[in-house]
Amino acid sequence: DPVGAVVAHSGSVTFSGTAAVGSVLTQTSAGTFTGTPAPTITRNWQRSDGLGGWDDIAGATGTTYTIAAGDYQKQLRLRVTGTNIYNTIDAFSSGSGAVAGLAPANSVAPVASGSLVLGQTLTVTNGTWTGTPTPAFTYRWETSADGLGGWATLPGETTSSYTLVLGDQGNYFRAVVIGTNVEGSDEAPSNVLGPATTEAPANAVSPLVTAPQGTVQGEVATATNGTWTGGPAPTYTYVWEISLDGVSGWVPLPTETASTYTFGPSDVGDYLRVVVTATNMAGSDSAPSNAVGPVT
After folding, report:
1. What is the 3-state secondary structure (H, E, C) of the chain?
2. pTM for the complete prediction?
3. Which of 60, 145, 277, 293 has a 20 to 30 A CA-CA distance from 168?
């Protein structure tokens, strides 16, 4: 019978490539394995464990390896193994330098959204980025007269949201997201929103009059504005009205234009309400409150 021979290895295991996240390492030599029967050759890329040892990288068994984010600041090497019925021999390459990171790069653009009525808030997502270590994000909002060019930075607007203000009407807006890590930075503009518009006030929830101490002479009724839409944000004025039955025949009290009203002797038996008028540059609207009374 033929005599077998154990596996032996000579030469060097080597690879080429840049030790940086996203780069590809390629085996350039496995050295030479001998033995009878001829050895079976397998390989596994390994990562340093930070304690002086090495761990196999799961699934990294080919002649090439694409460096992953989890390899950042670790060393890499290649283990090549020869095996026959008599024994197994491992041969190792030298370790790489510490794996460098990857500068941020945007792959899916940021998305800006929001109502374009003055007083409303626009927001932007970060989009999708690569980069190791994970990028940190900062923001810049820009405005343009036509949404095509001439973009100007809005000073101080460095968060992921921007509230439209008086003077923005007719203009277009976008956000620029900047991703930064120790390896560098990149920036990506969002979609364009615009033009910003004004909107006349409209009442959504009626004003409310309350009289916590009751509708008694000398006590004070207080009105809330209610809830309004419209932009820019409206300003409010008030006119109190009086009625014999609290249902109809409302008569304005021209001198009562504050948000509070003090019940007096002439109000006894009557009902009161307030009409709130909201006004902005686009128009105005009025809404009556509930009625309170009769005054005693």
Report:
1. CCCCEEEEEECCEEEECCCECCCEEEEEECCEEEEECCCEEEEEEEEECCCCCEEECCCCCCCEEECCHHHCCCCEEEEEEEECCCCEEEEEECCCCCCECEEEEEEECCCEECCCECCCEEEECCCEEEEECCCEEEEEEEEECCCCCCCEECCCCCCCEEECCCCCECCEEEEEEEEEECCEEEEEECCCECCEECEEEEEEECCCEECCCCCCCCCEEEECCCEEEEECCCEEEEEEEEECCCCCCCEEECCCCCCEEECCHHHECCEEEEEEEEEECCEEEEEECCCECCEC
2. 0.76
3. 277
